[in-house]
Specification:
The protein has 146 residues and is of the alpha+beta class. Strand 1 and strand 2 form a beta hairpin. The protein folds into two domains: 43 residues; 94 residues, Thrombin, subunit H (Beta Barrel). It has a six-stranded antiparallel beta barrel with strand order 1-2-3-6-5-4. The termini are far apart. The protein has two helices and six strands; from the N terminus they run αββββββα. The radius of gyration is 28 Å and the shape is elongated.
């Protein structure tokens, strides 16, 4: 007698679990449809600026009191940011000064903020930099030279 009631209880739990599983997947499907509609409406945003591949030497100063530059290389440049490889251990949010050796031009001094930094592919540290708005004209000029 006890085994019949136990089997009935297990069967009832299985049926309830099955219906809960169906409801959960149905709700998940509705959420995914909403997300797809949201993704379809996003393309009206302005595309990010094209990054140009460059190979310009840079000299990094980690602080205003620092007088020993750390060598590096700009690898990509856009009108808003740049990617750099160097031996410097930079931290997200850090502000640095740079001297950029632009081919056939004078050396350019810039200030930038580190957006992210990580270990690069060639064993050097890779960094994305964002330039302050006061350098917008200079960056556009450099972008034109790239």
């Amino acid at each position: 007698m006890k085994s019949n009631s136990a089997l009935s209880y297990i069967a009832m739990l299985s049926v309830v679990g099955f219906f809960l599983w169906i409801i959960r997947n149905f709700a998940r499907g509705l959420r995914q449809k909403d997300q797809l509609n949201f993704v379809r409406s996003v393309p009206h945003q302005e595309p990010s600026p094209e990054k140009k591949r460059i190979d310009w030497p840079v000299h990094i100063l980690l602080s205003k009191q620092d007088d020993i530059p750390i060598p590096g290389v700009f690898t990509h440049l856009s009108t808003t940011d740049a990617f750099m490889e160097s031996s410097a251990s930079l931290v997200t949010g850090q502000e640095i000064s740079l001297y950029v050796d632009v081919p056939e031009q004078e050396q350019v001094r810039l200030s930038a903020k580190v957006i992210w930094a990580r270990k690069g592919l060639k064993g050097r540290n890779a960094t994305q930099l964002n330039f302050t708005s006061s350098y917008a004209g200079v960056i556009k000029t450099l972008y034109g030279l790239a």
